[in-house]
Request: fold
Amino acid sequence: MKETPLISVIEDFNLYVVSEMPGSDIYRESDIQLKPQLMPCFQKEFQSYSSSGCVDEHLADPFKEDNIMNSSMSSLTSHKETTTKADDTNAGNGKATVLMSDQTGEELPSVSMNFFYATAREKEIERYGEFLQCLSGNVDDHVESDILGGTFFGEQHHELFSPQNIELQAAGGQHDKLGASFQIFPEFLQRDEACKYSKESLGSLSKESVKEADQRHRGIRRHLHFGAAISCNHAGNGTHETANLCLPARQTDFENLVPPHVETRGISGIWQAGSCSQTATLCSSFSPSACESVRSAQNYGNRALSACIPSGGDLHLNSFVRSESVGSEFSTSMKLGSNPHQQEETLMSDRDHYLCKEIDGIPVLSFLGEIYSHLGYEQQESQAAAGAGSSSYQSSSIMQTPCDSLHLIPYEQQASLCKGTMPSSEYADIVEFSQMSPERNRKKAKYTIKSEGCRRCNCKKSRCLKLYCECFAAGIYCLDTCSCENCINKPEYEDTVLDMRQQTEARNPLAFAPKVVSNATNSPANMMEEGKWMKTSSSRHKKGCNCKKSKCSKKYCECFQGGVGCCYGCRCEGCYNPYGNKTETIYRRAERWNNPSQEQLDTLESHNDCIKAERPNQFSSTWEELADIGQLTPPSHCLLGAVASSGSLNIRDCSKKFLGQSQQESSVLSPSGYLNWHHSPSSLTPKLYGCEALPELSSDSFFCNMMEDATPETLKNTCTPSTEGVKSSSPNQKWVSPPKIRSHELRSSSSQGLRSGWKFIMQDLPSFPSLAPYSKSQAAIHQNDGDRKGSTGYQ
DNA sequence: GAGTTTGAAACT
DNA sequence: CAGTTTCAAACTC
Reply:
């Protein structure tokens, strides 16, 4: 290993290290051409970052020399090609990514977001610099390069820092791909023990000076920025439609990173995820969970897919509602790009190629629409999306589509993952579906929905502008694959859609919030344990159900649908929710979650096989959010943000209660405190930024209920005898505010709880941007109503 | 695939 | 805020 390049490598985007790697010539000769238009993206980052005073001259004007960029791009992918042929797919992927970054100089919101993220994580990165000292010693070249390349970041487990494992990663990690290479893992950065462990594993500690380490970490920081930039460009890989479809459940992650000043119209509110669930992909550019999801895919098969395909409950795709903002800008630039052929390659808008599409001759699964619609969500996220919302499906990477994530997985593996996630027959149908014409797709949509847990609406009268519409509710535009009639929820009616969202939000600030919120009581590992329940025992529906006849054991019940048990917020009668009911103590529920009885499993299975199939999605979505969102987001932020989005709620009391908690949590959960829950301007005002201000609140009911969400059920149930076993009715037909003492207890215990990993998480946060003039869209609506008046009975 | 059931959303 | 209506998904046949 050469000693000298180390510093310069970092200072120069790791270029030199890469160039000295075996096979690096391939990259020098690579046909990857970073378009000049991409420059603004980087410039912004670097310039913004110049305050740190560590921007090199060529960084100040990083694109002055095309070679630099080309080399940079090469460095990002070089280690892949120098490892195994199996990774060849990355080359194509990387190329696609770069090409997708084709911009026309437009400022990319995502860039700011990325920058913000990176900046916000500066502290952690500082710590990471310290960590690097632990590794700088005897790590050989390719290991180093791999670390710099991001593979290192891509792993959350300390074990991976052992020389052997690093070797393995460098040699052929499946996720050692472009996307995964840009992982930023704040969680990892927070682990002092990681450094400790690495020291032990490597057996030789760094002898480099702190200064050198600092230089290195600076370089890495830049590298991260670069990666972020790529990621953001990645995000813009599609038209509105693509973005809409591919929204992962983890959009929230990304939105959380959005600084207040960033225009986030395209990212309505905050996103979720919940899910597409969401989600596993958008986040991939920023969070460990993304990489984890990829790895999980490799290790656990179907889980990967679930990570990418959140189920309805957790998914929230709000952020991408305004795909026109983010998505359209990208799409526009894409459309205007100079290379139609390349665009054609990268864009996945062709619905005839939802699945099994080839990019650069490499077969990849392109999960769009039907499959990703509810990433997020519950967690969805998005959704949808992502799911997003997340899944809730509910319930993100931001800018990386699920498709992109999947691109990191060889086709065969993706296929197996798909098969592992669903019955073979359904898988076959999905494939068949993907191969059908749009016309047939439409007809088949319903089936796809059922089999995949991804939804497309079938609205007839609401014009997809009310929460009746699942697309609208998930914060996404309807697609051609929807079976809706007179649909207005389309980009061409953007203003109208936004207005309706605004109205809906005014009516219910949480209307677009994920339906399922989680208390992170379990580690991702626990939650992902094979055959176990995937959602935490304390996950619950944000508002609670009101079931009368379904006994909360059918999908009529939103709790059941979201895969969570009923809680006190529910007003259900005769609750037989197999996930849990109100009379159940938290301990019992937790026990059940960890060790579901056969009867319970049978119940679930008999009631809805689909739920069972989706569970992995929900899990992945959930734990991912625990992994990254949870790390980044103090509960109170989430709550405040959610409430703030209304602009009218009065939760002053509750907010006060939470303020201290949030601050405390911030210090505990997020060293970079201010990097939390940055919603869209419309949903979270800058005042809330950094917990400096509290929103005006009108009713503490919401907050108290949310608090109750986070309140151990033992506290809630102390006065609620169970009279008929699991059967119960709702003694409280209305939401109840927890006794003050509960809040106090909760608050006082929050510190302990949080330190032990007990976090409250709203999987996806709310709100669409409410930027469009009401009158304008209203006029459009009226006009539309007029057009339809008397014929549709539209409300 | 049509019809029914269900409960959330919207409305009054 | 309660009651009613509307709506679309879930479900059944």
